Amino acid sequence: MKKLICLLLSVLLLGSLSLPAFAQGTGGEPQLIVSTENAMPGDEVAVSITIQNNPGIGVINPKFVFDSSRLQWLGYEEGGLKGWTVTEKAGVWLGNSDSSFNGVILTLRFKVLETAPEGLAEVRLVCGDGDAYNYAEELILFQLISGGVQVGEQAHQHSPGPETKENEIAPGCTRAGSYDSVVKCQDCGAEISRVTVPIQATGHQYNAPRFQWNEDHSEAAAYFICVEKDDVQELEAAVSHRTVSDGEEYTASVIFQGRQYSETRLIAADGSEKTTLQDAEVHAAVEEVSFPAGADKAPEATVEVSPEAAAEATAPAETPVTGRSLPVLPIVLICCALAALVILLIRRSRGRNAKKK
Ligand SMILES: [Zn+2]
Ligand SMILES: [Zn+2]
To answer: Which of 56, 78, 149, 174 fits a 20 to 30 Å CA distance from 284?
Structure first.
């Protein structure tokens, strides 16, 4: 209860909240429907607000928007939900528990101005993000169906036009977005319905890493920076070293989000350096072979990458990570393991032969 009061206060003070989990309705989309009445200038008229497919609400704070060039606010009457606080701009209802009431929740009373021109005096609700919750503090989004007062003789039945998107808020890495799905009447342009549709946060997407080496190339770390520059992941790399024909070669490897990234530094005899970055998708089978059981970090052993993959590896560090499959990787791995075994056996037998001599 205390939480809900806080919630309600923040709703009133701030007018908006971030998107939490959404309440699941039991049958159909929750709706708030404003009735359409017929009246002549000078008449008093009551417009009802009906709730349908109520999934259970604990607090609701609809705003009223009405055509003040045709209508004058007179007051309100409560319907099936008791205990409202209502002004001509908005209403607030706070229950003792979730209410699943379906039916008329409020009636708004207006006087049609003597000077009101013929046509629809629209009455619509705003009840979107942060305006209705249940006791589990789950946001409830309603489909809002507007109505109002048809002033004059010719009552007209709205004909819904195509659905359009309004108030689009693009999602971020960790922040949800939303848009309003709006349907307007093709004939008179009045808004018939409006529902706020959430858009899931995208999650971080990382660029290819930047490797940072220590002076003697014995250690390296890989930095993965989100394309939105709002997150950095630092991973300790496994470093291997070998002497090759044109110098000393150091390779740092990390596995991040199921993909292996390696940077190779070749220090030539004349002191010149050459750096190549390569990335390869880690095949599930390879992971089983090369990861020691229980290891949750990058394995000590580095995975050899085929020459084709190495040729592609000159991509600059700013390119976003893209999927590139490498089915030859397991075969290359097995070949490497076999070659290493053969070399080991040859060395051993040579050693024995030397001892014998
Ligand atoms: Zn219409
Ligand atoms: Zn991000």
So the answer is: 174
